[in-house]
Amino acid sequence: MEQDRSTVVERASAGQGAAVALRQAARPGSHIPLQRGLDPVTGPIRVPAMEPAGGPIRSTSPRTRPGRGRHRRAERRRAEVTLTLIVLGALSWIVVTWPFRGDQAVYALIGRQILHGQALYTDIWDIKQPGVFLWYGLADLTGLGEIGTRALDVVAAFAFGACVHVLLRGRLTTPWVRRMLTALATAVLLLAAGPGDFGQLEMLCLVPATGAFALVAAEPRRAPTWRRIVLAGLCVGVVGVFKLLLAGVVGLALLVYLVLHLGGRRRFAAVPVVVAAALVPVGLTLAWLATQGAFGAALHVWLVEALEMGSAPGSRDPARVLEGLGRYVLWMFPVVVLAAWQAATAWRRRDPLDLAMGAFVLLDVLAIATQFAWWYQWYFVSAPLVVLALRRLDVLAPRLWGRWAVLLAALCLPMLAHAASWALPTVLDGGGFTAASRDRIDERVAGYDTIRTELAAAGVRAGGSLYVVGDPLYNMLAGAPLVVRFDGWTYDLMTDGQWREVATEVGAVEPAVVMVDADAREWVADRGQDLQQVLARDYVRYRTSAEGTWYRLR
């Protein structure tokens, strides 16, 4: 027995990993069950089995139970999806409960009248391109009113998230960031935008703008096909149907990417292809306007009146520019910081997508500087900023613990505070689940009850003839169409010639009731002398309140 033990000890020493067996074999009087092994020098040997005195070892390592690890990962995924759906669902419902404000009201009124046969720019006027009015007109066809239109705003936000997912899924390495792309991009819009932002054409154009890049840049290691380049150009043209200036921003940024990404002659051939494709939707829109006899009026509004209004007094107020920029940066603070971080290294890395996104940002800032610089116009720059921010988040994801996680959470506080400023009052108002709750939300967000009370006090009949110099919500809530070509909502940007035209049209159409909004009183006094003469000649002032001054036709 001792000789057997010595043999076992010698051969186990020549083998690999038998330290425990050696110690057990050295104990006098021990009876050790032997297992067959392979000595690298002498061939087959018997090595003591490593079994403790208490019995065989039962391993609980996950490696021996692969099903348990998969089950835990599946549970985490289900919890992740459930939490995401709850958060996005709650944010989406809050957006659906929001009423229209003045801009959305005039879009809806003009869109409805266009679908009922009136011609844009000749029968009814606005400085914008037709896209936003057609969007609201189509939403009106659903028969769901404001709720249906707001639901389409939510659909547009999710479509933007889907485009970002397609664009970036092949460029990110962190699994959870790649899984959450759609949710993160959508949540940014739902958290940062308010009632006056959703439904603006800058928000609606995010989908075709991001879709153009998703078509050509989704596969970074492959050149896009000509078919995809043409489709991307068509997306740029769709943006042009909403706003020509924004189409120029997207188109130039897209060309920056194609020139940097493509090789040889293709980079130069892509330029005319994109331009030609982008002209198709705009050309079709002009052809439609031509069938209504509004071709010349459309070109005059787009190319002449837009420039004239841009040069009107107060059209580029520096205070408004700074206010809009400050609000946007504050509400999008984590996105702005991460995007700036990513863009700072784009030139060194020579990344075509990041450089194109940087060009997108710069071009849009320049475009805003040439416009009226309302705060909601900044939301179009969300497309490149979200793309850049998510790429930087992918880089930081492996380090998102400890102080990095705390820092990112701190960056999100302004955005979350802004979202809470709208979400919490909505919850306190009842969440919009009942008619009484929605009425409270309508009054808090847009003053619907105040406007209805004022309409009743002024004796305005539903569907009556009403012209308002000011908030078009009065027309919408009264069910009164726009009867004068100029809607009266852009009173602070109209040129002197447009003020004279308003006076001429009011005198010709003779609306039964004219209301001058309290916010528009000073503008009428300063620049609407011709309109004042028409009101003094043809109308009688019969009511003055904190909301405005009312005139009735003699």
From TrEMBL:
Residues 65-75 have a biased composition (Basic residues). The keyword Membrane applies. The chain crosses the membrane at residues 81-100, 147-168, 180-198, 229-256, 268-290, 328-347, 359-381, 401-424. The keyword Ion transport does not apply. Residues 49-75 are annotated as: Disordered. Keywords: Membrane, Transmembrane, Transmembrane helix. This is Dolichyl-phosphate-mannose-protein mannosyltransferase. It comes from Pseudonocardia xinjiangensis.
